[in-house]
Amino acid sequence: MHNAKAYSAASANDPLAPDTIQRRDTTDRDVRIEILFCGICHSDLHTARDEWSSIMPTTYPCVPGHEIVGRVVEVGSAVTTFKEGDLAGVGCLVDSDHACDACDHGVEQFCPDATFTYNWPDKHLGGVTYGGYSESIVVDESFVLRLPANLDPAGAAPLLCAGITTYSPIRRWGDIKGKKVGVVGLGGLGHMGVKFARAFGARVVVCTTSPSKKEDALRLGAHEVILSTDAEEMQEHAGTFDFILDTISADHDINAYINMLGLDGNITLVGAPEKPLPVSAFALLFGRKSVSGSLIGGIAETQEMLDFCGEHDITSDVEVIPIQKINEAYERMLKSDVKYRFSIDMASLKAG
Ligand code: NAP
Ligand code: ZN
Q1: Among 249, 252, 253, 270, which residue has the most ligand 1 atoms within 8 Å of its CB, making it the best to mutate?
Q2: Does the beta carbon of 117 lie inside 6 Å of ligand 1?
Q3: Which ligand is the nearest neighbour of the Cα of 164?
Q4: How many Cβ atoms are within 10 Å of 107's Cβ, its own excluded?
Q5: Which residues are in the CB-under-5-Å shell of ion ligand 2?
Q6: Cβ atoms of residues 39 and 162 within 8 Å
Q7: Could you identify which of 65, 118, 213, 328 might form a hypothetical disulfide with 38, taking C-beta atoms 3.0 to 4.6 angstroms apart as the criterion?
């Protein structure tokens, strides 16, 4: 085993602080990665603060981080797809059983025996898995992604979660060319949703609570912006959307968005607020509308998304911070004051 410097939360109420964790020795099939950048996802904050305790309680210490880009520093003897020196990415998944229907269909995130990158039972070392707020990570090569060389590593890190989480439902919905697509919440996920929906030819409309983000939304690729706090503006769009991607991290009135869907319209939730959202049956019945959910994406689809980003030069708009600013970054994320993803420069962990 190796010691690795990391930042962890000791309890739901503690700020993140420097810690030392253990990483396993590289097995035949493993890739050992020195982490260069790690994005900060709102799921990191939900988990560090145990906000999902009713579904997946947090085990402490907790080392979040599942938007990892790094340099391969060691490979096991059976590894064929990576070599020392390669740039590599790791997202929300680090293992699965490779044997079930979900794995067969390339949706490893639904494998009953999937291992998520942090706060999940660690099959190798016991305890729970530790994420990317750390100097290194050891991962089975089949869960390591190849990073297109033209992408800036700091901006590419968030693709590993925010990217795939928005790419996957947009692709699955079908051909969105010319369709009216709403992206609700312009944060880490939302701004990637805008970029992908635009890249696939949709007419993109952002719904935001933040008037200060209007211009950015247009710059990121939206054709139009709705201030969701303005009921009149919302009502003007009633019944007009084909598809809406809801990325909001907190409690909100989902019926206000269902009301904006047209016939057979769908709203897909990717945001994961702590509490259930009441849905009006009538809002769905009139117009045969549907509500669905989507969870990250499988490994092959994540690679497809990264390759697409390489071809179209798509990365996340990031604010690069040292790890020492992590707690401040969490507070700013809670205030929706992120433009539009924090990416931690892990060199700061070595220095600190
Ligand atoms: P984020 O960067 O904090 O963005 C969330 C955005 O939601 C904010 O920027 C804000 O946008 C809006 N918002 C926040 N509070 C709100 C409120 N009370 N009412 C209305 N709008 C509000 O978070 P993120 O990293 O994008 O993650 C978003 C959610 O997705 C989180 O719950 C996260 O856990 C979840 N998630 C799910 C998956 C999945 O696989 N399904 C993957 C990753 C993350 P405006 O300022 O534009 O209003
Ligand atoms: Zn995430």
Answers
A1: 249
A2: no
A3: 1
A4: 21
A5: 41, 43, 161
A6: yes
A7: 65
The finding on whether 208 has its CB within 6 A of some atom of ligand 1 is yes
Contact 318, 39 (CB under 8 A): yes
DSSP 144: P
Cα of 250 to ligand 1 centre, how many Å?
A: 7
Q: How much is the pTM?
A: 0.98
- Those residues of the chain that have pLDDT short of 70 are 352
Residue 248, ligand 1, Cβ within 6 A = yes
CA distance 32 to 51: 31
Task: List, in sequence order, the alpha helices (H) in the chain.
Answer: 42-48, 101-104, 153-156, 162-173, 188-199, 214-220, 231-236, 255-258, 281-285, 299-312, 326-334, 347-351
Residue 342 has phi, psi (to 5 degrees) of -80, 140
Q: Ligand 1 pocket test: which of 92, 247, 342 has the largest number of ligand atoms within 8 Å of its C-beta? A: 247
Nearest-CA residue for atom 16 of ligand 1 = 250
Q: What pLDDT is attached to residue 9?
A: 98
How distant is the alpha carbon of residue 45 from its chain centre? 12
Supply the pLDDT for residue 309.
98
Q: What phi and psi values does residue 257 have, to the nearest 5 degrees?
A: -85, -35
What pLDDT was estimated at residue 298?
98
**Whole-angstrom Cα Rg for the chain:** 20
Q: How far is the CA of 184 from the centre of ligand 1 (A)?
A: 9
- Closest to 148 measured CA to CA, from 165, 135, 160, 134: 160
